[in-house]
Amino acid sequence: MIKTLITFGIGIYIGVFVAQNYEIQKVDDPQKILERIKTYINENIGDKKK
Predict the structure, then answer these.
(1) Confidence label for 25 from pLDDT (cuts 50, 70 and 90)
(2) What is the domain partition of the chain in residue ranges?
(3) Concatenated DSSP letters for the chain?
């Protein structure tokens, strides 16, 4: 339990540090990411089956 709390605390600290010191783009909505994955699969893997 202590190890988990320490790991969680370190993760939060690193996340805050990165957010303050670097410009990070926001992550898209899950539905938008899923649509991109579907499009990628259809374009790249779907064409190989034909």
Answers:
(1) confident
(2) 25-50
(3) -HHHHHHHHHHHHHHHHHHHHS--PPPPPHHHHHHHHHHHIIIIIHHHH-
